[in-house]
Amino acid sequence: MRLNASAPPPPTAPHRLPLVLTAVLMLVGGLLLALPDRAGAAVDVLISQGRPATSSSVEDSTFGPEKAFDGVSTTRWASAEGIDPQWIRVDLGPSATVSRVKLVWEVAYAKAYRVEISADGTTWTSLATESAGNGGTDDWTGLTGTGRYLRVYGTARGTPYGYSLYTVEVYGTAGTTPPPTGAFTVVAAGDIAAQCTASSSSCAHPKTAALAQRIAPSFYLTMGDNQYDDARLSDFRNYYDKTWGAFKAQTRPVPGNHESYDPAGAFAGYKSYFGAIAYPQGKPYYSYDQGNWHFIALDSNSFDDAAQIQWLKDDLARNTKGCVAAYFHHPLYSSGGHGNDPVSKPVWQILYGAKADLVLNGHDHHYERFARQNPSGQAAFDGIVEIVGGMGGAEPYAIETVQPNSQKRISGPYGVLKLDFTDTTYTWQYVGVDNQVKDTGPTYTCH
């Protein structure tokens, strides 16, 4: 416990009061001169309350990272139990200056941790280090740091539990750039419902569905192969509906190749199960807006359909939003078993020409993120970020041939994409069914 407070002097006899007052004033003045960080703390401005927050894990959705920044002393963030390290991060806006950080720990405190700051969420600079923490309140003053993101990075727990903070208060000066607005979260996954149920411990889609619900996003989107093996209506009802079906009304799906295998006719079960949710504009491709984002859901089984291609061009021409994300099943680039799928290249060319920002895919059963690249696979500042998120429940595929511009690949742990959007930026985490963050993407600004 770090407390920056001085105890009052003991009572004195009345006839000595002027002398005592003089001594006290001299003492306080000397302390203020000797400890400028304590003096400055009184005028520090709270800049973290209500800001977007993320964390390495949560115990459950009741204890999300935003609880540490909501200004309510009785709510808290709690990580998964028994695992080191863990962290909680807040977005302070561009070029914030930090002078003080106050932490109020719950019973599950950190014995060792660092307070760090970063301009980009990737490279971190330490502001303060604790190696013998004992919980309670830690008040770090006299700090000097500038950046956008601040995190508390716990390296050793003080109890057998996890890490839990009632409050993280960051003081200083906010950046001159207006803070991001229109923040919202989306959960995404592809390749989801194998023909199994929660009665089997190896069945993954009940676990990814539970994780998706804990995150509690604004909506869910799927990148195809929602139901295995042939996506019959009976299979949707027996498997997908028992898990991901719990939030069907909030889901914006697209079909994969397995939806086309239905013996009753291509997409018959898919269309019957989702209805207008998957066909809001009468076709298996559609678009919608959220905040300053325009989302485009496409059917990559029919990228040779001239009607869909013309619709895409017209839709992009009508778009008035500043940021664009598209999602479909077959990835143009992938390091997995299916590999690169050139069927998607003409669509990439259209999206690239319209300055689209993000493409989400499934098909290969692994997680992978790529740096910004153009349709020819060349690194480009104005390129599109592609994420493969095919770990929703189907059997994982091995990584086979690593593609240029591939930055991170994970095969094995099932999970979902947690995507965080603002009116001008986007970032994401790949979260495993164990509530652990397996990867955190950079924060990008829209084109």
Describe the secondary-structure layout.
Layout: H1 17-34, H2 36-41, E1 45-46, E2 53-55, E3 77-78, E4 86-105, E5 110-118, E6 125-130, E7 137-140, E8 145-157, E9 164-173, E10 184-189, H3 205-215, E11 219-222, H4 233-238, E12 251-252, H5 268-274, E13 286-290, E14 293-297, H6 306-318, E15 323-327, H7 345-353, E16 358-361, E17 367-370, E18 385-389, E19 406-410, E20 415-421, E21 425-432, E22 437-440, E23 444-445
Parallel strand pairs: 10-11, 11-12, 14-15, 15-16, 16-18
Antiparallel strand pairs: 1-9, 2-4, 3-9, 4-7, 4-8, 4-9, 5-6, 5-8, 10-20, 13-14, 17-18, 17-19, 20-21, 21-22, 21-23
Shape verdict:
globular
Model regions low in confidence, pLDDT < 50 over at least 5 residues: 5-17, 30-42
Q: Into which percentage range does the β-strand content fall?
A: 25-35%
What share of the residues lie within helices? Answer: 10-25%
The major sheet is characterized as:
9 strands, antiparallel
Order of helices and strands: HHEEEEEEEEEEHEHEHEEHEHEEEEEEEE
Report Rg.
Answer: 26 Å
Keywords: Signal
Pfam family, one: Metallophos
InterPro entries: Calcineurin-like_PHP, FA58C, Galactose-bd-like_sf, Metallo-depent_PP-like, PAPs-like
Domain F5/8 type C: 34-173
